[in-house]
Amino acid sequence: MLGALLLAATAPLAAHAQAVALSGILGPRALLVVDGTAPRSVAPGETHRGVTVVSVGRDEAVVDVAGQRRTVVLGAAPVSVRSASTGQRVTLRSDQRGHFTGTGSINGQAMQYLVDTGATAVSIGQPEADRLGLAYRNGQPVLMTTANGTIQGWRLKLDSVRVGELELRAVDAVVTPQSIPVVLLGNSFLSSFQMTRLNDEMVLERRR
């Protein structure tokens, strides 16, 4: 069901290329150099400067940049990965079911999301919140109405939510004890962007 996030270049935006190099392997972690910045130790599932490490081998690592996967090899020249996001605008393409899904990150941890314009806040199932390491039990308890009755969830603020190169800080979210296969990207994130939909494309553009 989950589709990859597809970023489409739309004029007059120019595509931005990120240079990603592997300078070392530290156990299960990759030592990444992104756009010439200082090396950073990144574990699988973690994101650094928009680059998510998918897996780490003996002398290579698989990384994901805006839905594009590349293999970077220790000591090899940097890999250039192009994306169409400039930090202000991103174009999403729907999957076969008409859902806008993709990969992003919460507090630097990789996640899969589904755009849900009917949700007030970013909604996360408890198992996913545990995987992301969220301290939701320290949040505000809230009662949530479901088809099976009233259940207790937790309200909290996420340090960051990132989709492509679009990133927001201090985003309201709720954690529900029910298991949700993806993070529901609700209006606490979406309302900061102007949304335009045409057929199978949705453009998110930061409000000025």
Provide an overview of this structure:
- Strands 10, 11, 12, 13, 14, 15 and 16 form a seven-stranded mixed beta sheet that branches. Strands 3-2-1-8 form a four-stranded antiparallel beta sheet, with no helix packed on it. A four-stranded antiparallel beta sheet has the order 4-5-6-7, with no helix packed on it.
- The chain is globular and about 55 Å long.
- The longest helix has 7 residues, at 126-132.
- Helix content is 5%, strand content 55%.
- With 208 residues, it is mostly beta strands.
- Strand 5 and strand 6 form a beta hairpin.
- It has helices at residues 126-132, 187-190, and strands at 16-26, 29-34, 40-42, 47-48, 51-56, 60-65, 68-73, 79-83, 89-93, 101-106, 109-115, 122-125, 140-146, 149-163, 166-176, 183-185, 193-198, 201-206.
User: Termini separation (Å)?
Assistant: 34 Å
Determine Rg (CA atoms, Å): 18 Å
Question: Any low-confidence stretches, pLDDT <50, length ≥5?
Answer: 1-16
Strand content: over 45%
Major beta sheet, specifics? Answer: 7 strands, mixed
Label this structure with key terms:
single chain, 208 residues, mainly beta, 4-stranded antiparallel beta sheet, 18 strands, disordered N terminus
